[in-house]
Write the structure tokens for this entry.
Amino acid sequence: MSKPALLCAALLWPAAFVSAQNPAPGAPPTAAPAAPAAAAAPVSPEEAKKNLSQALGTYFATRQKSLPGAEAPELELFQKGVSDVLKSGNKSYALGAQLASQLVHDSLEVTIDDLVAAFAAVMQGKEPLASPQQVNDEIQKLQAGLRQKQQAAAQKEAAANEAIGSEFLAKNRSAEGVQVTESGLQYKVIEPAKAADAKRPTADDSVVCHYRGTLLDGTEFDKSPENEPRTFGLRGVIKGWTEGITLMPVGSKYRFWIPAALAYGANPRPGGAIKPGQTLVFDVELVSIAPPAPAGAAVAPGAGRPLQGEKAVATTPPIAVEMKDGKPVVRQVTPEQEAEAIRKAKQADQGKEKP
């Protein structure tokens, strides 16, 4: 493969490369390699081309939507750009189009002659027109500027979403059955506990719950698997969960409306369904209060942290590793819960375990 084509592949396929080189965060260590999959049934060249085209279109669209501040492209112009590059069949042209699209995406102003001259010097083995230090300095300035733009866009989006949430909550607080806590959390009892003396958890407990999380428009971003409640510690979740679930007696079902200040604020996980400043809605069934986890219990290291180039998924609540039928079951865990587990494990090792 020629150098231009090689560079083009590196620009186009970063996510695929990273995913192939690293296991999913929090995944259990693999044992023996799996047996080779059975050979797929042969397909016609037309069907193979269709399958590849649909897969790549889905991949690129998903990646585009996951970018901060991503905008939907005009499809006619998008199709023309793709068609022009593919019809040329020229890898050098494709590489130039790829680089130019990145410059346009990041709104970077460059002089074309200088950019091409610097590119040519490196490709032809001549003295680079910019030293490694100059390249490093310019890239750092570029990254800092892009971060500032992203932060400004996130703050603007957060302010708009907080305004929407505040308007909703102002109306919702007067709805039948809705109660409001001092922090601003709103909740409604959907189904009371059957036992009059049902116990309520404390913020230091772990609980077993069924739940479903949505945005105000009904978009679902997380839920527990059907017939499989999740177990998690109330110290490792968003503030609205910690406060809300401590209000619930075991066996009850509640609905929570959680303002952004008690959820993810202006900093949700990048690429997820939850956007900055959004109010969240949760339907929760408190199944039971779980027995305390043993000191130093294992957690899934790094779970919940997306790989580079992959779309992150906003998940609440976090999950640890549990033993089921004598086998470890890995469940998602937030960085906060991981840090808390490590802290407790260290305290236990030193004989200084505290509640």
Confidence is low (pLDDT under 50) at residues 1-35, 295-323, 327-335, 351-355. DSSP finds nine helices and nine strands in the chain. Residues 1-14+49-129 form one domain. The beta strands are 179-180, 186-191, 206-215, 220-223, 230-233, 253-258, 280-290, 322-324, 327-329.
